């Protein structure tokens, strides 16, 4: 027997309809790429997204067509997402930090018909345009007054382009499983892989994300998504924020400490989210200028492991709650979030931080397990680590044009992360499966060592890789970038780690470098480091 409830398809533009109708006057503030701050509302964003949808349709864009966006977080990019989705086309966020060859590869692979781009990226795309064969038209996210002379095919300024239609338009209706958005993972090896979100997965993911133990945002919040819309679906915030009716502040192209602080203070931001690198810049700026964060209530930090010292600094020096989160592009992207459950509520000081450095627990809609190399499930004891596998309502089941080969027999996706799970459901990443250091048959977590090393006051950034060793197979090498103007030797750094990890986890050597290479999404490029240090002779190996 079927239930007798209404069939109300989970379509992304319904989120914007809801925001416009129920929170229509809530502000959407952006730092425009042209410079000044720009203010609008959800009601106006919806009206303009409808025009955009109508204009795209007039250009012949239809259900299932891909439209690339190469843009910072601004109101225009938000309008673009909703306008594209509103006719059943697919927003394809292109990460400008990818290598140019990767950009042209993914645009061709996705077969994007239109590209909407910020002024910032015009020179980059002009150089690549010859290779971007599927693109029929470039829409520059600006107005005629700021439109540069460009060689881009059929280039038009966004404002004038959407003004060519009257806005008398309705969203298209289609099945909730229709594709809505696309984001390529920036794998460190091989070609990028396209993750294709559906309307249903995006809407459910946002409902999941809004819950108090997840992102926990409400209509009373002022949300600043520093995480770019081109990074892992903006961690869902481009949908979650209008869904709950929170005010939205978009940082545009300026993500440095001073610019982020200016927005936090001026717009009285209560909630924000980004990768640790962004917060490192902000915290340095706050310290240098002796500033406080009186309005900020909560910061979500993820994308790579959040250092313990960062959690401590936000909480102790600025009275801001830190929620450490983990996820991946394939998960829309939220997987776990680190709110404190009653099981740990009595903890304080270091014991509480021990829980907060974990990546958190799964909301409803995400199932996790850890398994050994043979696929056998491992105990949830907080100690045993194994391959982390996931399934859920917003987890990919296949990559675009790659066939259905990514799930195991029980429908779980191997995240490529290595983790522990404890009996309360808290997950802690100990490594990427490719980065874990295998010493004498045992595993050493490179992330644990990195987190400890960045706790040293003179260390700006640290990476740990396994280096070939005749006896142990691999041994850890600590690679360090010191803070500007600081000097320190190997002995000082090793003494700092001594006693904080098991003896056999201690790095065999320390290499000082001026820079650690990063991927397009800010992660340490371990493959490049392994390459650079592949012939490194550890002192312990020579002995
Ligand atoms: P992406 O799809 O680019 O967001 O990358 C996903 C990967 O980033 C995950 O599989 C993890 O390896 C890593 N990651 C994300 N969040 C965290 C975190 N909080 N701690 C450690 N690694 C993380």
CATH superfamily heading of the domain at 12-198: ANL, N-terminal domain
Low-confidence stretches: none
Biggest sheet features: 8 strands, mixed
Distance between the termini: 74 Å
- Ligands, ions, cofactors: adenosine monophosphate
Class of secondary structure makeup? alpha/beta
Cross-sheet strand order for the largest sheet: 2-1-11-10-12-13-14-15
Approximately how much helix is present in the residues? 25-40%
Tell me the fraction of residues in β-strands, as a range: 15-25%
Q: In angstroms, what is the radius of gyration?
A: 24 Å
The number of distinct helices, counting runs of at least 4 residues, comes to 16
- The CATH topology of the domain at 12-198 comes to Rossmann fold
Mean pLDDT: 95
CATH architecture of the domain at 12-198: 3-Layer(aba) Sandwich
The level-1 CATH class of the domain at 12-198: Alpha Beta
Number of strands: 24
Shape: globular
What's the helix and strand layout?
Layout: H1 12-22, E1 27-31, E2 37-41, H2 42-58, E3 66-70, H3 75-85, E4 90-93, H4 100-110, E5 112-117, H5 122-128, E6 137-140, E7 156-157, H6 158-162, E8 179-185, E9 193-198, H7 199-210, E10 222-225, H8 237-244, E11 247-250, H9 257-266, E12 271-274, H10 276-289, E13 298-301, H11 308-318, E14 321-327, E15 334-337, H12 349-356, E16 366-371, E17 386-392, E18 413-421, E19 427-432, E20 437-439, E21 442-444, H13 446-453, E22 459-469, E23 473-482, H14 490-497, E24 509-512, H15 526-532, H16 539-542
Parallel strand pairs: 1-11, 3-4, 3-5, 4-8, 5-6, 6-7, 10-11, 10-12, 12-13, 13-14, 23-24
Antiparallel strand pairs: 1-2, 8-9, 14-15, 16-17, 17-18, 18-19, 20-21, 22-23
Helix pairs in contact: 1-2, 1-8, 2-3, 7-8, 9-10
Adenosine monophosphate (AMP) binds at residues 185-186, 232, 302-306, 324-329, 333, 359, 415-417, 429, 432, 521.
